[in-house]
């Protein structure tokens, strides 16, 4: 594993960084092998293909079913400024097509997305941004219905967002409230709160890297319920994930990796321990493999 690489946890510049990939990735083929029991395994089945531009954005994604038959294709186009301008998503299962077209106005600092479903306009969304490119307003039009949402922010002394709210025009109450806490500019806690529930994520850091994240939910009973605890390696790949039900440990997943010379994993062995069944050992359940090619 390459310790000289640093994951990008937020504010990623392109899809490669957002997908935790290193180097100039051109294409990835994803295969899954499932285990019939602890000794035998099925043949690898292709379940996804991703193609990237030479500037690090996704340009095509293909999804396949459990038998390797194609389910859906997404193709994405960009302008000379490497901005998204169009995507075409075609579903083979129901023969539907969704097209998104983006237009930008640098003077007004807006972006407009028009969505077509089977060649008919479904809705249009216009986003307005401030001088720092934070969204401040979104207007959505679908048929005769228009929805206007306003975004408000509060920043700490390091210009990091500590509070973000979304309010629909005509409604005094916030639709959502996001809270953020930092330690030495590292995000250590975030929460997403609506009128009915709150989701909290706590992050632990070790030597400038994320080592563990714990998620909680506060719902109608107003109690804090543990949902998941995930531990990561130094490249932000999950190595252990504990899943809870009503704050009681239910299942535990363990991940082991093999890496290529660029630092991307090419094989992931996944095993599970069922705590609700009082299991004593981890049992192999599937293997993910990735065939990765790079731009030269």
- Name the beta content range: over 45%
- How many beta-strand runs? 20
Calculate Rg over CA atoms: 22 Å
Summarize the helix and strand pattern as letters: HEEEEEEEEEEEEEEEEEEEE
Count of helical segments? 1
Q: What's the overall average pLDDT, rounded?
A: 95
Summarize the structure.
This protein has one helix spanning 15-18, and strands at 25-34, 45-52, 58-64, 70-78, 84-91, 96-105, 110-117, 120-129, 135-142, 145-155, 161-168, 176-183, 186-193, 198-206, 209-218, 224-232, 238-245, 248-259, 265-274, 283-294.
Feature tags:
mainly beta, 20-stranded antiparallel barrel
Q: How would you characterize the overall build of this protein?
A:
The mean pLDDT is 95. The chain is mainly β and 296 residues long. Strand 15 (209-218) and strand 16 (224-232) form a beta hairpin. The longest helix is centred in the first third of the chain and has 4 residues, at 15-18. The two termini are 22 Å apart. 1% of the residues lie in helices and 62% in strands. The chain is built from one helix and 20 strands. The protein has a 20-stranded antiparallel beta barrel.
How do the strands and helices of this protein lay out in sequence?
Layout: H1 15-18, E1 25-34, E2 45-52, E3 58-64, E4 70-78, E5 84-91, E6 96-105, E7 110-117, E8 120-129, E9 135-142, E10 145-155, E11 161-168, E12 176-183, E13 186-193, E14 198-206, E15 209-218, E16 224-232, E17 238-245, E18 248-259, E19 265-274, E20 283-294
Antiparallel strand pairs: 1-2, 1-20, 2-3, 3-4, 4-5, 5-6, 6-7, 7-8, 8-9, 9-10, 10-11, 11-12, 12-13, 13-14, 14-15, 15-16, 16-17, 17-18, 18-19, 19-20
